[in-house]
TrEMBL record:
<protein>
    <submittedName>
        <fullName>ComF family protein</fullName>
    </submittedName>
</protein>
<dbReference type="InterPro" id="IPR029057">
    <property type="entry name" value="PRTase-like"/>
</dbReference>
<comment type="similarity">
    <text>Belongs to the ComF/GntX family.</text>
</comment>
<feature type="domain" description="Phosphoribosyltransferase">
    <location>
        <begin position="157"/>
        <end position="222"/>
    </location>
</feature>
<dbReference type="Pfam" id="PF00156">
    <property type="entry name" value="Pribosyltran"/>
</dbReference>
<dbReference type="InterPro" id="IPR051910">
    <property type="entry name" value="ComF/GntX_DNA_util-trans"/>
</dbReference>
<dbReference type="InterPro" id="IPR000836">
    <property type="entry name" value="PRTase_dom"/>
</dbReference>
Length: 232
């Protein structure tokens, strides 16, 4: 009910741009264009966690893009799922380039149940559904499979170091029974990658189930991947 009410309110009540804070449009064309115009890159968290599959991102986690992601996740600006899902779809297409014949399960990295309850919606799953639609529009067989669940409590990752994040999420995820068949081709999806700890843990859990985490796609990644980067 809370998510439905937020969606209605965000459509009828004007709000300042989530990216730049100007205007009363939710997201202005300039900020939307910044998200659409971002060049997809493969990103490499430093240090790179063991077991992390290749990760593709559409934009750096900075400025207007960061503002839109936080507004969608924490402030419930649900119409932002459209441009953010489009950006995730572009990253997903890059991640799966050259693999047009496989059937793909887009598996979102789950948030803690308490976080979903507090926010009133599941932001990663919401943008994953948009991304899956973009993949199908490009001719790929893709569907969102919420296969992962948390099997022990974790704390909020904000403010933790890379090592602390890895310890926080270690062995915290598992695949739901019968959610993924053995050998299933999986694309992990999330809104942002920083240290890569959550995606690496998700990949571990998928492998443990007998499925294959081929790659990962996110809306945004470390700024260094776009500024003076030397890899990928």
């Amino acid at each position: 009910m809370r998510g439905w009410w937020r969606e209605i309110c965000s459509l009828v009540l004007p709000t300042e741009c989530a990216g730049c804070g100007r205007g009363r449009t939710g997201v202005c064309e300039r900020c939307a264009d910044e998200l659409r115009a971002g060049r997809v890159r493969r990103v490499y968290p430093v240090p790179t966690p063991a077991g992390l599959p290749g990760v593709w991102a559409s934009a750096p986690y900075a400025d207007a893009v960061r503002g839109m992601l936080l507004a969608h996740k924490e402030r419930g600006m649900l119409p932002l799922a459209r441009p953010l899902g489009g950006a995730l779809g572009r990253a997903a297409l890059a991640a799966l380039a050259g693999r047009p014949d496989a059937e793909w399960a887009l598996v979102p990295v789950p948030s803690a149940r308490s976080a979903v309850a507090r926010r009133g919606h599941d932001p990663t799953r919401r943008i994953a559904l948009r991304a899956a639609g973009a993949l199908r529009g490009a001719g790929l067989a893709a569907r969102v499979v919420p296969a992962l669940r948390q099997v022990r409590p974790v704390v909020d990752q904000a403010g933790l170091s890379g090592r602390e994040r890895a310890e926080n999420v270690a062995n915290a995820l598992a695949v739901r029974p019968r959610a993924l068949p053995a050998g299933a081709r999986v694309l992990l999806v999330d809104d942002v990658v920083t240290t890569g700890a959550s995606l690496a843990e998700a990949a571990r859990a998928v492998r443990a189930s007998g499925a294959e985490p081929v790659a990962a796609a996110v809306v945004a990644g470390p700024l260094a991947a776009w500024v003076g980067r030397t890899r990928g």
